[in-house]
Write a structure and sequence with these properties.
- By secondary structure, the protein is mainly alpha-helical.
- The chain has a domain of about 100 residues.
- Helices cover about 45% and strands about 5% of the residues.
- It contains 7 helices and 2 strands.
- Strand 1 and strand 2 form a beta hairpin.
- The radius of gyration is 27 Å and the shape is elongated.
- The mean pLDDT is about 80.
Length: about 180
Amino acid sequence: MAEAVTEPRGALVFGTTKTHERRSVPYPRLLDELLRARCARKQPGDLVFTGPDGGVVRSSNFRYRWFDPALTRIREADPDFPRITPHDLRHSAASLAIAAGANVKAVQRMLGHASAAMTLDVYADLFDDDLDSVAAALDDHAAAAGVGKLWARPLDKPLVNLPEDKKPPDDQGSY
C-alpha cells in the first residue's frame, strides 16, 4: 500500500499512509479467487473496491450502506454476535495473525505501527499463551540437536577428553 485517502470535511484527499511509508498487507490464499474476480478487467492503478459510481468508497457511506447492514444480518442469525466497528476488524486481523504464529515484528509491519513496542502495548496479552509453545519449540529444537544429552551429562564427566597436559586444575571444573 503506497497511497491512502482521507475524507476531511467531505473532501477526498489522496496522500501517503499515516506513517508515510509503503506497506505490504498480507492476505491468505483463500482470498485469491475472490480478489482475482474483483480485479478482472481492471488496469494497474484502478481501485479494487469502489462505490456505486466507480469511485472511492467513502468511509461514511461504507459504514451506512454496507458494514452496518451486514452486521445486522449477522446479528439476526446469531444474536450473541458482538456489536463491532470496522476498526474492530483490524484488531481481529492482528489477533488472527498472532494466533497463526506471526511474530510481533510481522504484526507490527502488517498494522503499520511505528515500533514493535507499540504493537506489544496493544496486543501483549495475546502473546502470553506463547510461553508453552516456546517451551515446546525449544524442546523440539534441542532434541533434534542433541543438546539435552549435552546438558544432562553428569558433572564429573568431561565434555571432551583433553590430553593430561591440557586439563585444567581440579578446582577450575571440568571441560
